[in-house]
Amino acid sequence: MAVLVSQREIPRNGVTTSLKVHNGGALAEDRRIARSKKALRQALIELIEERGVDGFTVNDLCTYADLNRGTFYNHFHDKDEFLLSLEDEIIDDLEGFRVQLTRLSFADLVRYRLNSQPLPFLVDLFDYLREQGDFLHAVMGAGGDGRFSLRLRDAVCTNLIRSVLHERYRNNPTPFVDYYISFYASAYLGVITRWIENGMNESSETMARIAMRLFFIKPGESIEL
């Protein structure tokens, strides 16, 4: 409504009119790009699941997405660059969780554990991973990109363990502390991978509780949630 009024107030302003048409065209183009990328993403997931990441070509990808190769090459050099762009988006999203981690302490874990409550940060994290579940299942599976699991481990699991360490160890780690962090980070990556492989049947709240329980469990203690 406001745009139409503005045009009537300046009926001879061709610049304004052409600008609005240009903006509308740019918006439509952005939507087309988004639809194309969504179709390519889904095609990539299906092909990785069926053939493995090395078992198909850009032509296969475009055929599955019902797009021509020119559309693909307008934005990506090859399928590896496209895959990397999708992986980068997830890592960038996880950066927001890293900021939350900087405010997390071991005392926070203990407090939520004593109150039998899942850590909100972990619930949000598993919610996000669930949203990306189809892509993660493909790329972290047997036929996926093994490098991405390591990036996920470093972006989330390593930072999680490091954040709850006592400041004395976090700021001046010894070789043993490095191994300690590596051990638990890999273990938590295993938890995430197992959850995704099994179809993410457990709720985000349950997975947050499992993650916290595993952090506190002691040798010989009953293996119960």
Quick tags:
225 residues, mainly alpha, 2 domains, 12 helices, 0% strand, elongated
Short structural description:
With 225 residues, this protein is mainly α. The chain is built from twelve helices and no strands.
Q: Could you characterize what this model shows?
A:
The longest helix is centred in the first third of the chain and has 38 residues, at 14-51. The chain contains 12 helices and no strands. Helix 2 packs across helix 3, helix 5 runs parallel beside helix 9 (146-163) and helix 9 packs across helix 11. It has 225 residues and is mainly alpha-helical. Helix content is 75%, strand content 0%. It has helices spanning 2-9, 14-51, 58-65, 69-73, 79-101, 106-114, 120-131, 133-139, 146-163, 167-170, 175-197, 204-216. It has 2 domains: 2-73, Arc Repressor Mutant, subunit A, CATH 1.10.10; 83-216. The radius of gyration is 23 Å and the shape is elongated.
Average pLDDT works out at 84
Low-confidence stretches: 1-22
Largest sheet: none
Number of domains: 2
Give the overall silhouette: elongated
What amount of the residues lies in strands? under 5%
The percentage helix is over 70%
